[in-house]
């Protein structure tokens, strides 16, 4: 089985009857991100596409602002420490951005938290201009995004415990998709891959997420230049406020043939 899930033995109880069988659980392992060989952060994530995750994470942390600032991403190797599959080292172009790195503690980022470890409240906000993209998308197309995203969730089918993020164009084409135990990790994997392909800003794309829309999801979209974010579940108040300030069209409860538009509704036609 792939690294995204592992076979387990489980005792199921249904109607008072016990049944022992094989099942699969979503894989969660720590990944240490190093910059120039020095520890920067530990991310609890689902293994796979670690280079994309590292690139997207460093963009969301504003350590890098474009693919031209990344020289190399590699998994570490050391003859004396053979099990380094969960350690990724990033080499940046030029000098280390010391001011940006000081804004973050070297702590574990859990699979449910995309902004843990920040030193100050001010450091939560990205210093980038609002999105002014005139891109528009049909409401009928947005209604298809969760269905198309769900159809691409192979790991969720096995485990029932994975989130997903998908990048769509106006023609409902799924351009990129990723699964992870963390919503924000899935977004980082999608954005990171597009960053490494030198496709940012994603000003003619929409982002669909399988769960709720939180502050960090909207901020990741802002940093990637994505003008439309659609969530299957509800947005938070901070997500709505950030979307309003950042020029992002935010939709929630995109399911069962309907949706709520919370900000900048002019992009949905």
Shape: flat
The residue fraction in helices comes out at: 25-40%
Provide a count of the helices: 7
Strand count, sense and barrel status of the largest sheet are:
6 strands, mixed
Based on the coordinates given, report the CATH architecture of the largest domain: 3-Layer(aba) Sandwich
Q: Would you tell me the overall average pLDDT?
A: 88
Number of strands: 13
β-strand amount: 25-35%
The name of the CATH topology of the largest domain is Cytidine Deaminase, domain 2
Query: Going by CATH, what is the homologous superfamily of the largest domain?
Result: Cytidine Deaminase, domain 2
Low-confidence stretches: none
- Helix-strand topology string: EEEEHEEHEHHEEHEHEHEE
Terminal CA distance: 43 Å
Q: Tell me the number of structural domains.
A: 2
Assign the structural class, choosing from mainly alpha, mainly beta, alpha/beta, alpha+beta, or little secondary structure: alpha/beta
CATH class of the largest domain: Alpha Beta
Spatial ordering of strands, largest sheet: 9-8-10-11-12-13
